[in-house]
Amino acid sequence: MPFTRRSFTQAISATAIAAVSRQSAGAQQTGIFRYGVASGDPLLNRVILWTRVTVPLGEDLTVVEWTIAEDAAMRQVQQRGITYTNAGYDCTVKVDVARLDPGKTYYYQFSAKGSQSPVGRTKTLPIGALNRLRFAVVSCSNYPYGFFNSYRQIAGRADLDFVTHLGDYIYEYGNKEYGDGTAIGRVPSPEKEIVTLQDYRQRYAQYRSDPDLQEAHRQHPWIVVWDDHESANDAWESGAENHSPATEGDWNTRRAVATQAWLVAGAGKSVSRRADLSYIFVRRPDGPGDARYAPGGPGAASGARQSRAVRYRPEPAGGRTGSVVFPGVAGFP
Questions:
Q1: Potential cystine with 326: which of 165, 180, 288, 309 (Cβ 3.0-4.6 Å)?
Q2: 66-70, long-range: CB within 8 Å, 24+ apart, which pairs?
Q3: Is 307 helix (H, G, I), strand (E, B) or coil?
């Protein structure tokens, strides 16, 4: 078989993914970095790096070092730095790394308290004409319904450039409300419908402890938007199908804490000084004119333009027919 440029590129990619894969996924389930690593929200010259540290209760501030390199062995270091987190941010870490080259693969790693995280692999958006760009598209990940085998298959694909999650990264229900995980050891945590900030954080942490999801995050950068189950089923402007004010309180409060867990995960100035801290590796929009979300903006050639518009119907689903309300970036809750 002739050895073409394409087969050479595929061989190099497969070798790189194998090098990163040599670290046991099981090793991610213990220690400081038991929630693994992830990356996402790529731009032409920037990408978000994510992890969560497990430290003793009551620790005021944890110093976390990060490194980004051009090789999986982490020898060709491109940048490194220090960031911080604490319990107020559920010990999540997000770093918005800039000054990167377009369409380039990088490798990254965190360290804290003498321990090192697994090495992750990420990539910036390409620029100019492209011969090929390949996405894996996922959505609707319901923990008690079964194992995340698809994530494991995605992790093993060396030919992917990015993973796009179209929403419902988590589900808010308690066990047996929308799937029963009892028989397979996948009972949602906490074992109830999630309503408070701590509830949402705990549910995200459980999902991020799944080894197949961890591996898919470690191997590929993700582009993530949200749908309704990140807060509650069939959300609309003043409520949701799966929200009862009589027993679950004010809808705007619930929506705010759900957003906090997804995007901000903390009030006030971020202690990381580089990005808002949360479980999802996105940066806060700069406003309605943010070029990342405009036609022809960064990533237009790849079709990777993101939408921050969250569909809040003026009435519940099944109510008045007509156009769906898209409040846009400025209306992001």
A1: 309
A2: 66/93, 66/95, 66/97, 66/108, 66/109, 66/110, 66/111, 67/108, 67/109, 67/110, 67/111, 68/97, 68/100, 68/106, 68/107, 68/108, 69/106, 69/107, 69/108, 69/109, 70/104, 70/106, 70/107
A3: coil
Distances (CA, A) of 175 to 191, 197, 209: 6, 19, 18
How far is it, in rounded angstroms, from Cα 37 to Cα 33? 8
Looking at 217-266, which runs of residues are DSSP E strands? 222-224, 235-236, 239-240
> What mean pLDDT do residues 84-88 have?
89
Helix (H) or strand (E) holding 163: strand 162-165
What is the tens place of the pLDDT at every residue in 256-282? 999 889 875 433 333 344 445 677 777
Picking from 221, 110, 106, the residue whose alpha carbon sits closest to that of residue 155 is 221
Q: Taking 90 as the threshold, does the pLDDT of residue 149 lie above it?
A: yes
The per-residue pLDDT for range 121-133, each reduced to its tens digit, is 999 999 999 999 9
Q: Is 0.90 surpassed by the pTM of this model?
A: no
Buried b (16+ CB within 10 A) or exposed e, 241-252: ebbeeeebeebe
> Which two structure tokens, joined as six digits, stand for 319?
């109510």
Q: What is the pLDDT of residue 14?
A: 47
Q: Return the DSSP state at 173.
A: P
Contacts of 289-293 spanning 24+ positions with Cβ under 8 A: 290/329, 292/43, 293/329
Whole-number Å distance between alpha carbons of 91 and 271:
11
Q: How far is residue 174's CA from residue 14's CA, in Å, rounded to a whole number?
A: 40
Q: How far is CA 272 from the centre of its chain?
A: 17
Domain range annotation of the chain: 5-331
Which residue type, as a one-letter code, is found at position 74?
M
pLDDT tens, position by position, 9-62:
444 444 444 444 444 444 456 689 999 999 999 999 999 999 999 988 778 899
Q: Which of 207, 178, 213, 204 is nearest to 261 (CA)?
A: 204
